[in-house]
Amino acid sequence: MLRSGVGQRRVTGEGVDPRVAELRSAVSRLRRELAVHRADFADRGIAEDELAALDAMAISGTPEVRRLRRSLLIVAGSLGSVSALAGGLAAVRHAVELFGPPPPEGDRPR
Fold first, then answer.
1. What is the DSSP letter of 108?
2. What angle separates helix 44-59 from helix 65-79, to the nearest 10 degrees?
């Protein structure tokens, strides 16, 4: 049986880490919700770009936790208080948290 890195999650029979599958699903959902959201806001492009980056990280395999969390913060900051997207953003946050806690303070770049 194969195991992945952080959290020792099982890898499915098809070789896909279920955490990666959940991240891709959550990112896809939020991208769709953002695409159909009619209201325009200043940082919409930033959110779209960062969601694309999250998807690319997920496609590449097991992403780096620090980078995932940074992207999550950028998306959350870009969406601001767009309440219509809160559920999708929460799903992305949950998926990112499946990869483990943030690195300890001493390991963070300054």
1. S
2. 160
pLDDT at 26: 98
Alpha-carbon span 77 to 75, nearest angstrom = 5
Mean pLDDT by 10 residues, the chain (110 residues): 43 74 97 93 93 94 90 94 93 95 68
Report the 10 Å Cβ neighbour count for 34. Answer: 20
For residues 75 and 92, what is the distance between their CA atoms, to the nearest angstrom?
Answer: 10
Q: Cβ(71)–Cβ(55) under 8 Å?
A: no
CB atoms within 10 A of CB 107: 8
101 close to 63: Cβ distance less than 8 angstroms = no
